[in-house]
Write a structure and sequence with these properties.
186 residues, mainly alpha
Length: 186
């Protein structure tokens, strides 16, 4: 959700006092973010508005674009699978020994897996941030920006990414709740 809804970032511009911290206007910050996101989603030429950027910084955003598009593919595939499983489940009868439907156990698995990750991230977000980048950008360090050459990092503070993670986990929790709800045996 945070990568698809730009308004989530816009809410952070004032909340994180980015104009005061950077010296750039709200419009300049928003333009830099929008141009970077247009590159990610619309295959626009890479740009960060008037903010300086390096070739290494651009390469990182190329890698990010791959992950963003993979996220959307996974979302679409998951939605189709969920729809198909829902239709199939309506036609199947559960064993009389089953106390819960498969969606309950799917939700439980998601809860345990992401619950552990959330607890680890909550105890040391800096480390979780580093581990995330080492997993999803193996062998690369171009995600470690130098603000003097890649000014975009000044308007993308780590707290923003933490808030993206909180939003994602919160939405996942809502999904798990519905898995539990639909997982009651009828």
């Amino acid at each position: 959700m945070p990568i698809l809804w730009r308004g989530f970032y816009y809410l952070h511009i004032d909340a994180l006092h980015l104009p005061a911290l950077t010296g750039w206007s709200k419009e300049t910050i928003r333009e830099a973010y929008d141009q970077m996101m247009d590159y990610e989603w619309k295959n626009a030429p890479f740009s960060t508005g008037v903010l300086r950027w390096s070739e290494e910084g651009q390469k990182h955003f190329e890698d990010v674009r791959v992950l963003f598009h993979l996220d959307v593919r996974i979302l679409v595939i998951s939605a189709v699978c969920l729809l198909l499983l829902t239709l199939i489940r309506r036609r199947m009868r559960l064993s009389s020994h089953a106390t819960r439907a498969p969606s309950f156990y799917a939700g439980l698995g998601i809860l345990i897996f992401f619950g552990i990750i959330t607890i680890l991230a909550a105890t040391d977000f800096d480390r979780a941030f580093t581990v995330f980048h080492k997993i999803f950008f193996p062998g690369k360090d171009n995600w470690i920006f130098d603000w003097r050459t890649d000014e975009i990092i000044l308007i993308l503070p780590q707290i923003y990414f933490r808030n993206c993670a909180i939003l994602a986990v919160s939405l996942m929790a809502v999904g798990v709740f519905f898995c539990f709800l639909s997982g009651k045996k009828k």
